[in-house]
Amino acid sequence: MKNPLVFVPTYNESENVRTLCAQLLDLNTDLDILFMDDNSPDGTGKVLEELSSQHPNVKVVHRPGKLGVGSAHFDGIQWAYANGYQRLITMDCDFTHPPHYILDIIKVENADIVVGSRYLKEKSLRGWNLLRKTLTRTGHFLTKTLLGMDYDATGGFRMYRLDRLPRGLFSLVGSKGYSFFFESLYVIHFNKFLICEIPISLPPRTYGHSKMTLAEVKRSVKLLFSIFMNQLLYPERFLLAGGVDVAVNPALNDPQGWEEYWKAQKISTGGIVYDSIAAFYRKFIIKRTLNYFVRKYFTKGSRILHAGCGSGQVDTDISKHVSITGMDISVNALRYYGKLNQNCATLHGSIFSIPLPDRSVDGIYNLGVMEHFTEKEISEIFSEFKRVLKDDGRMIIFWPPEFGASVIFLKGVKWGLENIFGKKGVKIHPDEITRVQSKEHVARLFQKGGFMVTKYYFGPMDFFTYSVIIADKHSLSTAKEPLVALGPTV
Q1: Cα separation, 387 vs 145, whole angstroms
Q2: What is the rounded CA–CA span in Å between residue 79 and residue 342?
Q3: pLDDT recorded at residue 207
Q4: 151 vs 153: CA distance, rounded Å
Q5: Which helix (H) or strand (E) holds 24?
Q6: Taking the C-alpha atoms of 116, 118, 119 and 123 in order, what is their torsion angle to the nearest 10 degrees?
Q7: Alpha carbons 395 and 362: distance in angstroms, whole number
Q8: Angle 21-23-24 (CA atoms, 0-180°, nearest 5)?
Q9: Region of poorest pLDDT, from 38-42, 177-181, 203-207
């Protein structure tokens, strides 16, 4: 087994690194040491190179600039995985993490992560000023109350057992600042890995000054409340699932930028209100409405294509009733989908060219997809849907009308961000080009694509969010049902 690796991120720590390195090397145990410097203007990097040349077990990584303490820890963890380390100890360079506690940390064998806790000893923060004590204890109170973690979640003095913690866990962590510490510990906690604490007492900062700014505090608080809301409404986003096998088609063209959209769907530190409302809608309103229509219009065991599936949060219930293949142009979306819907198939494809045989599925559905295309493109999409549907197949399309609740809400969010908060060029998602104007508008578009609209709904079931359109694959002359309205309509 390799020596434990001690990881120390640095920025303007030239006055500390020599002393810290000497204390680490003087510990009565074999250690490797990795310093990661963010191009410190005070010459820290040069000092570290000297230390590395003098001690073969001291390594240095230079980053191009100040990229955030959280991103440094993420990079340090990835470096340790890549270089085959089983145990990784992380600590600060300012001596608020006394090196002698490392000897206690490495003795713990039965935990997946060991945390040096400031809250297991009385007066462990003796000598700290009132502001630091207040910030630290407030952070502990919030992570304990909101996230249910009775650990020292905001400190960085830890040992990760990399031989027990899957590398993919850390890809679920989005923070690049100080909030990395509580976000990463929450992900580990949520996935039920064993967390152990040892008591530590921290002295006042011996050298230098704190680098945590007021802006960083604000970002951390925002992220904390975002995690709290997501654990209530969308806890699956923190779940580490088994590998999701997505057969990627590299030739697919994505002109609307959906890959980038889904790539950015880690925890947001900004849109807490929007994210929370959207998650609530999906979980308690849209999912329930979709369940109703799928169960009503598809028999149990039907083979259904979710064409433009996104993350698939709404599919988790109906997959027990029908056999679903989730298809999307975004590989990132499909990875989300596969994690949430492990009993469903995934398919990397475009709705303009679906990689399925003719007449191979009983039904197709999607939600919030069609509005992103022109009427000409919609005609092409319907033609492709018709090709893969069986002769008695049908579609269920959730399509926002011009004055639907979601359209009005998102316009309000955009207006508020731009006019109240001063944000420029706000784009919540790719442009909505074609919204439903009326029943007649819908009937004309579907008829042009070779479908007969048999049911149309716009009403209180989903709080007037979508027009729900049921369309059968048969010509108007052979249609079994005329165009009718189910419930209130536009």
Answers
A1: 54
A2: 30
A3: 47
A4: 5
A5: helix 14-26
A6: 140
A7: 9
A8: 65
A9: 203-207
Tell me the average pLDDT of the chain: 88
Closest of 188, 195, 266, 194 to residue 234, by C-alpha: 266
Its CATH architecture, for the domain 258-485, is 3-Layer(aba) Sandwich (3.40)
- How many Å apart are CA 170 and CA 184, to the nearest integer? 7
Predicted TM-score (pTM) of this structure: 0.69
Q: How far is CA 81 from CA 5, 9, 110, 188, in A?
A: 11, 17, 20, 16
Q: Could you read off the pLDDT of 324-375 as tens digits, one per residue? A: 999 999 998 998 898 889 899 999 999 999 999 999 999 999 999 999 999 9
Q: What is the rounded distance in angstroms from the CA atom of residue 47 to the CA atom of residue 358? A: 67
H or E element, residue 347: strand 345-348
Q: Max CA-CA distance within the chain?
A: 89
CATH architecture of 5-209: Alpha-Beta Complex (3.90)
Asked whether the domain spanning 258-485 has the same topology as the one spanning 5-209, the reply is no
336: its two tokens: 């989300």
Using alpha carbons, select from 84, 28, 100, 20 the residue that is nearest to residue 58: 20
Q: What is the DSSP secondary-structure string of 75-143? A: HHHHHHHHTT-SEEEE--SSSSS-GGGHHHHTT--S-SEEEEESSSSTTTTTT--HHHHHHHHHHHHHH
pLDDT band of residue 480 (cuts 50, 70, 90) is very low
CA end-to-end span of the chain = 69
Beta bridge partners of 346: 326
Specify which residues 35 forms β-bridges with: 8, 60
DSSP element (H, E) containing 457: strand 452-457
Helix locations, 125-204, DSSP H:
130-147, 180-190
Q: Phi then psi for 161, rounded to 5 degrees? A: -85, 90
Which is more confident, 380 or 423? 380
Q: What number of other Cβ atoms are within 10 A of residue 220's Cβ?
A: 25
- Side-chain-side CA neighbours of 412 within 13 Å: the count stands at 9
- 93 residue type, one letter: C
Residue 79's CB: how many other CB atoms inside 10 A? 17
Alpha-carbon gap, residue 395 to 469, rounded angstroms: 8
| Boundaries of every domain in the chain | 5-209, 258-485
Q: Give the strand order in the sheet containing 58-62.
A: 58-62, 32-37, 5-10, 87-90, 158-161, 113-117, 195-199
